[in-house]
Design brief:
Blueprint lengths: L11 H12 L2 H13 L3 H29 L3 H11 L5 H34 L9 H6 L8 H15 L3 H28 L4 H9 L9 H14 L6 H6 L8 H29 L8 H14 L3 H35 L3 H21 L1 H41 L10 H23 L3
Helix pairs in contact: 1-8, 1-12, 1-14, 2-10, 2-12, 3-10, 3-12, 3-16, 4-5, 4-16, 5-7, 5-14, 5-15, 5-16, 7-14, 7-15, 8-12, 8-14, 9-12, 10-17, 13-14, 14-15, 15-16, 16-17
The structure holds phenylalanine and sodium ion.
């Protein structure tokens, strides 16, 4: 394929499954289950579902339509919109969301490396043998032992991306996503039938209405709603740029939200009941995946097979996200430098590996980097995309672009909602995140 010919998705289901793969990631697995329990159980679902359905789907429609209209990634898309207003530095603005998403790729690739290592440990039956799992993780993460796994994660992503959008990303997501859901269902049956699982179910479901009086509950639900569907102004935008004019953007956005939320629920009902059944603490973040859960597999009947399935499902969830994340700088370099996809993946792979190397060697640096990217760059990117598309471009044209090809077009009521409510709330997410050090 020549450099100027743009690929398109081969099927609607392929596009949606690729977006679902992009959305489902660490946010669903190591943030959502704990948040659901800690911020009021079923009560948390009220703000969360409300925010993700209204704001999450609006952000997705915005990114899909912006990308489709411009047939370009964020840098070129921003450049064109600002140029039409006589501003010639729009591309410099578009670099920010691209850098933000690339930053997520840098730390995701490291975590995928850890997951690959733990998948191999699971295959070898090591969880039954390793004496102290916390100490084991401590002697692995943050040391040179991770480098080779980090590199492997990048190489796997490169191998998929070099095949292109249709033959690489779409084809593998069509296999990985259904498999992911099947595995999660199998794990769900195991977890719910463990003696003592009921306590975990109560933690997740018994509504603590008083938590709704705590602003932090609303803030966490809001932050989750944006992060979980990957709103950062570049990642979903680049997938949208490969869409046909007859694709139904509102329907695709809603389907992405629904599948992503289903995955979050499944993860919560797989993880939390098992954690309670073994009397452990359902923390969020890396310790959950790399200490608490391996500890459970060690003691659980059938722990070997369930540990293998579990880490395989996490690999699918995380790799389908790294493909989307890496596609963003890959597309940007192909377009800017007029180089082939094959050259671009090598360039991006090499650069992001080099940037990630110091983070391999220090968990502290890793934490600061991940915080900087998720607290500042990603929310800034989300705000910039909303301002650019809904304000600088034109809210009516934006709505028409979204409605193009849709069976259920949005009415004019949507315009003030998107232009004022969505954009302002995106700004609130950014500010609260900075104040609270991450939401
Ligand atoms: N949605 C991903 C998750 O839940 C994270 C992500 C955020 C990816 C922003 C891309 C951009 O894990
Ligand atoms: Na997600």
């Amino acid at each position: 394929m020549s450099v100027n010919e743009r690929e398109t998705w081969s099927s609607r289901i392929g596009f949606v499954l690729s977006c679902v793969g992009a959305a489902i990631g660490l946010g669903n697995i190591w943030l959502f289950p704990w948040r659901l329990g800690a911020y009021g159980g079923a009560a948390f679902l009220i703000p969360y579902l409300f925010f993700v359905i209204t704001l999450g789907s609006t952000g997705l429609m915005e990114e899909f339509a912006f990308g489709r209209e411009r047939k370009a990634g964020a840098i070129q898309a921003f450049k064109e919109v600002y140029a039409e207003r006589g501003i010639d530095w729009g591309d410099k603005l578009g670099v920010i969301p691209v850098l933000g998403v690339t930053g997520v790729f840098v730390f995701y690739a490291i975590v995928v490396g850890w997951i690959l290592k733990y998948f191999v440990l699971a295959l070898q039956g090591q969880f039954a043998v390793i004496d102290k799992l916390p100490a084991y993780f401590g002697s692995f993460a943050g040391t040179p032992k991770t480098i080779i796994w980090h590199l492997l994660a990048i190489i796997i992503t490169i191998l998929v991306l070099r095949l292109g959008v249709k033959d690489g990303i779409e084809r593998i997501n069509k296999v990985m996503m259904p498999t992911l859901f099947v595995i999660l269902f199998i794990l769900l049956l195991r977890s719910l039938t463990l003696p003592g699982a009921l306590e975990g179910i109560k933690f997740l479901l018994v509504p603590e209405w008083s938590k709704l009086a705590n602003p932090k509950t609303w803030i966490m639900a809001l932050g989750q709603a944006f992060f979980t569907v990957s709103l950062g102004g570049a990642a979903m935008l680049v997938y949208g740029s490969y869409l046909d004019e007859d694709a139904d953007i509102p329907a695709s956005a809603l389907q992405t939200v629904i599948f992503n939320t289903t995955a979050s629920f499944l993860a919560a009902f797989v993880i939390i009941p098992a954690v309670f059944a073994f009397g452990l603490d359902p923390k969020a973040g890396p310790p959950l995946l790399f200490i608490t859960l391996p500890n459970i597999f060690k003691q659980m009947p059938g722990g070997y097979i369930f540990s293998v399935l579990f880490f395989l499902s996490i690999i699918f969830a995380a790799l389908s996200s790294t493909m989307n994340l890496m596609e963003v700088p890959v597309e940007a370099l192909m377009q800017r430098l007029k180089i082939s996809r094959k050259k671009s993946v090598i360039l991006v792979g090499g650069l992001t590996f080099a940037v990630g190397l110091p983070l391999d060697l220090s968990m502290k640096l890793f934490g600061h980097f991940a915080d900087f990217v998720t607290i500042y760059l990603i929310p800034i990117g989300a705000v910039m995309a909303a301002v650019t598309y809904f304000w600088v471009y034109d809210i009516t044209k934006a709505r028409q672009a979204i409605n193009q090809g849709s069976d259920n077009p949005l009415g004019t009521w949507w315009e003030p909602f998107a232009k004022y409510v969505f954009t302002i709330v995106a700004g609130v997410v950014l500010i609260l995140g900075i104040i609270f050090g991450g939401i």
